[in-house]
Design goal:
Elements (H helix, E strand, L loop, with lengths): L5 E4 L8 H15 L8 H21 L4 H15 L6 H17 L7 H8 L4 E6 L3 H10 L9 E4 H4 L6 H11 L6 E5 L2 H10 L3 E5 L13 E3 L5 H7 L8
Parallel strand pairs: 1-2, 1-4, 2-3, 4-5, 5-6
Length: 242
Amino acid sequence: MNGKDAVLFDLDDTLIDFQYSRRHGLRAVQKLLPGLAPVPLEELELVHDEELHANFLHTLGGSLSDAEARIERIAGVCRRYGLEPDERTVAEAAVAYAREQQSNVRPVPGVSELLHALRGRVKIGVITNGPSAQQRAKLERFDIDPSDLDALAISEEVGTTKPDPVIFRHALTDLRLLPEQVTMVGDSWENDVLPALGSGMAAVWLNRYRRTSPEPGLAVEIRGFEAVGNVLEILGVEARQG
């Protein structure tokens, strides 16, 4: 990949390890809802993810609060497995999920080192779906000052969500660069890779969980950030000497 002038990152499960924290939350749910205990965690995670996407636009639009959305997601998961716990138990499970998920937030391994290596050498930005306050808080928790970013496009602030190309154009405007000068790095093929390519950017697919590529060769694929030198090479950024 030729050297670029900027790198845009997705946030959840690219910079912030959402899967790690979600699995802690789902284990807490399984303890409170024994009917879900036999379900393999990986399967439960996929079902929960489907429920998350089903009510995401409602939370973004304000018709559901975060707490109400969590309850609805847990209730939806239960329905998928034919379970009918009472409302109080579902609410308790939603609270337990939030407590464990939020207390086990961590950056994706290698992120801190990669961002340190990129700072001052290329422009850095973030494109993310989610509530503004929540997404900004995640960045600040890991010493990523939103004001230090060259571009920050949050769906609630822009008024649209990935994969809408509008949110990618918003980031490009902040960067003051042409699409061909920018690389997008993200874990979602549909929300990060395809719209970035469609917008004229290069794309790097972060495939930490070894999913099958929908179209091999369309985007550069990496499995993680720990080998920072290799990632820098892929991004076309030379590693610092000494």
